Amino acid sequence: MSWILTVFVIIPVLMLCGLWVAKNDNQVRGLMVAGSTALLVGAIWLTVYFVQQRNAGNHDAMLLANSVMWFKPLNIAFSVGVDGISVVMILLSAVIVFTGTFASWQLEPMKKEYFLWFVLLASGVFGFFISTDMFTMFMFYEVALIPMYLLIGVWGTGPKEYSAMKLTLMLMGGSALLILGILGIYYFSGATTMDVTELARMHAMPKNAQNIFFPFVFIGFGVLGALFPFHTWSPDGHASAPTAVSMLHAGVLMKLGGYGCLRIAMFLMPDALQTWAPVFLVLTTISVVYGALSACVQTDLKYINAYSSVSHCGMVLFALLMMTQTAITGAILQMLSHGLMTALFFACIGMIYHRAGTRDVRYLGGLMKVIPFLAVSYVVAGLANLGLPGFSGFVAEMTIFVGSFENAGMFHRVATIISCTAIVITAVYILRVVGKILFQAIPNKKFYELHDATWDERFAVGALIFCVAGLGLCPLFFENMIIDAVHPIFDHIIAYVPTLGNL
User: Fold this and answer.
1) Among 30, 139, 184, 311, which has the highest number of CB atoms less than 10 A from its own CB?
2) What is the topology of this protein in the membrane according to its UniProt annotation (predicted)?
């Protein structure tokens, strides 16, 4: 059954072919609904199958593993396989693509061309998460990045050309560092394989070489994960992107950064982690607090959520670098939680903007009276974002901070306490915005004419609320899957640096 993972690449390719020959908007919508539904059903089946296999005693590091050599001189293979982390990321991606389809139901103009690039972006994301070969991962990583330029530059708003160019240049700069790091790992590990699992088993890379190439890979992925000070592309890109692109971008694409940092940088170069962890821990602590503080002074709803994403994605990298099993588990939960709640946030913001014609909080007010469904949905997204118990944000953040405080070292505990302040700051800007745009007096008489969410918008938003609440109320199902994958990674790193978790 190893071929089953290729379905997550084949379906988007078939969707691209279908969209290419589609004649009208109804055919485009039908193809997108059919394809995104197939991806979601496939992701749910994969999740159930994975749990069944683990319960049946199958403890292979990667399930459904398969490898086909496609460039022998550099030992590049199309290698696929999934563990618990991969499975939850694939499920997250499928949910965002599915809901993003309905959030873009009324998009104009050039609906067909828009969805072509949207599906290409999604294919890169799915390919990245199923790959276990470093170069194949990098290839899909680039496939996911390239469409962003056109999706923002053509269908975006505001200074969209500037935002698209800035995003592309900064992420391509990170890619340049990344390919140098990948080639460094390959050649200094004996130049025999690019498979991540095999490279980790061999552990042939000298420590000096690890110290050189670790920052290349970590920064390369960290740029996409909004690592300070390489985060500046993110707020501009989010603010200018169309609604569904913002959902996929913040909800899934930025998670490639944290996933790559763990799967390649930390897993394959554990000796260098002890050297570089304190440096990057300082940067990620700054990301967490700086992102939250920056959100407090923004007036554009998208910029507020974009800087909030900088803070929450910084929390992912922060937790990974804390190097306790609980903290790493919390980091993956945060990736899943943030992907869902930020997609919900961007969906609500896009729908409000479509009706009110502005995202500026200074010119919004009284929306609870005129568009109650979207207003309540925005409140739910905000409460999840600030970590209210019962929602996904609480589970993820509590796991991160409890795991981080397990480190006995003063440096780690001070960093944890500083990062915890972001929770309070997040409550400040969320509650301030909710009070301003939903409950204050209606500033414009035209707002009385606004209509609430349509059926397609209600469906997309309702599905995301269900997922956010479901993860918050029943987290153990996903947490057990994540722990199952984190445990061997953590044991591998600690085996080479036994004191790393207690610095």
Assistant:
1) 311
2) Multi-pass membrane protein
Crossing angle of helices 476-496 and 25-55, in 10° steps, is 70
- Helix ranges (DSSP H) in 241-300: 243-248, 255-260, 267-268, 270-296
- The share of the chain scoring above pLDDT 70, in percent, equals 98
Collapsed DSSP state (helix, strand, coil) of residue 299: coil
pLDDT in tens, 284-317: 999 999 999 999 988 888 889 889 989 988 999 9
Q: Which token pair is 160?
A: 């969209």
Residue 373 near residue 458, CB atoms below 8 Å:
yes
CA separation (Å) from 290 to 193, 209, 330, 426, 440?
A: 40, 32, 21, 11, 28
Whether 340 and 502 have beta carbons less than 8 Å apart is answered as no
> Is residue 341 within 8 Å of residue 384, measured between CB atoms?
yes
Which helix (H) or strand (E) segment holds residue 136: the answer is helix 134-155
CA 414 to chain centroid = 27
Query: How crowded is residue 46: how many other Cβ atoms within 10 Å of its Cβ?
Result: 23
The whole-angstrom separation of Cα 314 and Cα 284 is 5
Domain count, the chain: 1
pLDDT tens digits along 114-130: 888 889 988 999 999 99
- Looking up tokens 């190893």 gives 2
Strands (E) across 46-146 are located at 63-71, 76-82
Distance CA 164, CA 167 (A): 5
Q: Which of 103, 135, 91 is nearest to 32 (CA)?
A: 103
- The dihedral built from the CA positions of residue 255, 287, 471 and 32, taken in this order, carries a sign that is negative
Long-range pairs for 61-66 at CB < 8 Å and ≥24 separation?
61/197, 61/488, 62/132, 62/197, 64/1, 64/2, 64/4, 64/5, 65/2, 65/132, 66/2, 66/3, 66/5
Beta strands in 35-135 (DSSP E): 63-71, 76-82
Q: How far is residue 122's CA from residue 40's CA, in Å, rounded to a whole number?
A: 12
Looking at residue 503, what is its pLDDT?
A: 44
- Amino acid 273 reads L
Beta bridge pairs of residue 63: 82
Q: Where are the beta strands (DSSP E) in 36-164?
A: 63-71, 76-82
Cα–chain-centroid distance for residue 464? Answer: 15
d(CA 406, CA 422): 19
Write down the residue that tokens 């949905």 correspond to. Answer: 377
Residue 436 contacts residue 360 (beta carbons within 8 Å): no
